[in-house]
Amino acid sequence: MSNTTLNCDDILADKPGPPPLYSTGTRYGIAAVLTCFPILCLVGNTVVILSVATHRRLRTITNAFVVSLAVADMSVSVLVMPFSIYSQLNNKQWMLGETLCLVGISFDVMLCTISIFHLSCLAIDRYLAICQPFVHERMTSQIVVMMLTCCWVIPIFISFVPVMNKWNTIGIEDFIECAAPPGSNTCVFLVNVTFSLICSAVAFYIPVVFMGVCNWKIYLCARRQAMQIRSLDNAVHHQHSLKGKGKFKQEAKAAKTLGIIMGCFSVCWFPFFIFNIFDPLIGYKIPYIPWSVALWLGYINSVMNPFLYYYFNRNFKFAFRRLLKCKVCRGISEYEEDPITGTTHLSE
Known about the structure:
Blueprint: H1 3-11, H2 24-54, H3 61-79, H4 81-89, H5 98-131, H6 133-137, H7 141-153, H8 160-164, H9 173-179, H10 193-232, H11 238-281, H12 288-312, H13 314-324, E1 335-337, E2 344-346
Antiparallel strand pairs: 1-2
Helix pairs in contact: 2-3, 2-4, 2-12, 2-13, 3-5, 3-12, 5-7, 5-10, 5-11, 10-11, 11-12, 12-13
């Protein structure tokens, strides 16, 4: 027995071992179920984009971030999920070459980071709309474009740049060579402790804490403004109070929807980023199946957003129905919500 084999036996002695191998029927069944997610993701986020494009009341600064986030989620369904399904269908055998493996991993890291950066921008937008309305009114399209550009460009520096240069493997080359030896046709993404800490902090933990602080401040501002509105209801300028109340209700509903979307994102990605931190620290002992479940739970978040818009945002619900019933094609007027009374009617 060679020294290399002996070394690998020692290195892999307490590790969980390779992924389980499934029968042909099981592989095709799992792949068929998983294929539903990118299809739903692509269709749902396409409807979100078309809704904003065809519904007047959805063409707002806030929804510029929503549309860009939908594009990021669609990209997950096209550039990330298919690679994972392919690997599952082929019993984790990767026959597409090392370069495409690294590109797929880079897109995975980049698009997850892009999503949470968009949610951070949405948190800023909602905070300004409720807590600093005069500042929010001065938010120009140039500022929005700059923020969106940062959302798409900055993640490249924690995805493509380090992954393509293999900075994530520095210090763990021996383990990777034993776990995925050259010629084994595998595509694995293992990271050293430094990379896991920096990437997880930038792509998840810091933005999640930031969004939590924003939502707490939004809650405090909303509660304070609600008390002020109740006092204005008894004042002389009752009509002015109604208008202010209607505007506040719209902003508060949008903030509530955003809070739900942020909460779902955090819950879906939390298991993956917990694993991403602890697996390198404990010596890569988390088995394949929990890793795979955590990863797909994160992917499923990209599928969820259109459903969250539908259930928690009245204007998106009307726009979705109008599209799916082809009312846009027939030229039927869009549904509107009265900002004061909250009732809905058809726009002429």
